[in-house]
Amino acid sequence: MPTSAPSPKLSTPLEQGGAPTHALGDVTASGSTLRRFLHGLPGVDAVGLEARAASLGTRSIKTTAKAYAIDLAISMVDLTTLEGADTPGKVRALGAKAALPDPTDRTTPTTAAVCVYPDMVAVAKEAVAGSGVKVASVATAFPAGRAALPVKLADVRDAVAAGADEIDMVIDRGAFLAGNYLKVYDEIVAVKEASGAARLKVIFETGELSTYDNIRRASWLGMLAGADFIKTSTGKVAVNATPANTLLMLEAVRDFRAQTGVQVGVKPAGGIRTTKDAVKFLVLVNETAGEDWLDNHWFRFGASSLLNDLLMQRQKLATGRYSGPDYVTVD
Fold it and tell me: What is the mean pLDDT of the chain?
């Protein structure tokens, strides 16, 4: 059963203090070469993509495999609260739940991380101390990303200084949709450098990118710039993670590793609420990227309500009874 302890990285796309270095480094030499590369990626067959995602979503798993899948999914959750009304008390409670999801069963895995705003990082860090749970922080003027680069970098540095282990940044969707790929690339590189030792998750907000071709281009752009993870969405728009857009991103990380030797993680976020949903995504991972990604160092769920359903289903498998929502803590 994978734990929250990280697996060794296969290789790193970033030299100390420099720009990403990998087999495709020359395609980012200029805006024109980057555009030519991104627009030269194969076009996405939308019908085929959605059909494959739907087909994989029909796979069923047996009791023993289901128990393993539930524990694996719990270990992959980034337990998240990103509300203007967040308080230190709420974040402490969330951290306690991440570290001990089911107080009645200490065999339950911890979650991978708690994800909070930068001003709550120190509170979260204290709450999960000694548990192995990471603290992730959204930054770069989340969720819209509408700020000057120095402001975005200050946001990142504040989170890292407070103890963030991971940074979840948002790309400038306006620049991306305008075709200014080099600006987006340069911002990701700068944020990666500002993140220091913290792992960087790059959020595309796939619901605003309009087309599958754009999601494929954004995936490769993020990886070229040194992302440790590519992430579907902020959870703040109408369309967030879907099986189809996650499948497309899994294909991208698989192909990127084949070309560069660099492994990059994937994080679907927003709208994944049930155990059945989580299992569908795990099947996507296994069948598309492969077993190497079936670990919380390489795959995460950005979620708030998912954990409760996973815990209820876990209790049902263990006891034969469905406890219901009154038997899990309210986030």
Answer: 91
